[in-house]
Amino acid sequence: MLNYKIILYTMLTGILMVFIGACGDSAVEQQSPTTNVADDGCLPEAMLNRMSFDEAEEGNIRRSLRLPGNIEVNKDRVFLVLPAAGGIITEVHVRTGDFVRRGQVLATVQSPDIAAFKRDLRAARSERNIAEQKLELARSMFESGVYSRRDLLEAESELERLQSEIERLKEEQKVLGIEEGETGYTIRAPESGFIVERNINPGTHLRPDEGHVFKISDLRNVWVVANVSETDIGNIRVGDSVAITTLAFPDRKFKGAIVRMSNTIDPGRRTMEAIIELPNPDYLLKPGMFANIKLDAMEDERFVHIPSNALIFDENEYYVVVFRDRCDMEIRHVNIKRRNGDRTYLQDGIQSGEMVVSARHILIYNQLIEAQQ
To answer: Model-level pTM?
Structure first.
């Protein structure tokens, strides 16, 4: 029984000592609080060494953005191929992605509408033959004195009219791709370029009012469509130069310029489109590729700028801590002209050459506020 009491007494004594020690440490801490400002109102050297300072500088406003985008065909250099007449596609000679030359046959169409066209051409040729005979007769009668010169001129005029009609129909036949003796026609490329869209297959029934059957684009010049968020719209201008990289060619930069911007916002993505024209002489850039766009431009206006992380936002206003020496610091209210990533351009509040605190400045700001109260 005695041993049990001794063991219990020893355990209680140890717990009590630990508790007293803990309370003692806490009391020491409370009696010796750590301060950032010494009694003379100056920053201790130890605190000063852990702070960062930056000099306010004056310079032109720089606009820097990184935007996502996609490679697309240049819609100003797109040619839509329309069917000349209704019918059934019998052959398609090209696939999407093929390069075609102007006048190359793209597809063949069997068309009942061609019969009516050829009937008109045959009728015009028949009328021309009759007009030639009438002209020969008129000349003979004019030489014998039976016909007047007016009769002769009328016969010549009728032959010229029919000849012009035949030439018009033959030109139309050429445009439509109608071959002699055929009951169909061919669809030909209006310009050289790449087939970027094909909407027909053999057996397709065509109607002239159903839209284009091929889309051809000259990919020597493409568009990069950049998606600009609402917050970045004010930092982008028509004419800005940009550098573009792609996943396919990460080590290569393509240079272009913004040529136009949309006046509407996509309601789903909340973005605006900016169009960049990009030369593509080697056809490396393909429609549908993802693109990274980097914009870095300078404006003519000059403002004082500081690191963005030096700003202090308090009660809907912006402030900075101006540092002259460890015993002379000041809170200064500033108005922002524009923020650009890690730099902020100010309308007023700071002069070029002044130093601002850019690290642990919240601590100093709070202590200066307390000192003013």
So the answer is: 0.57
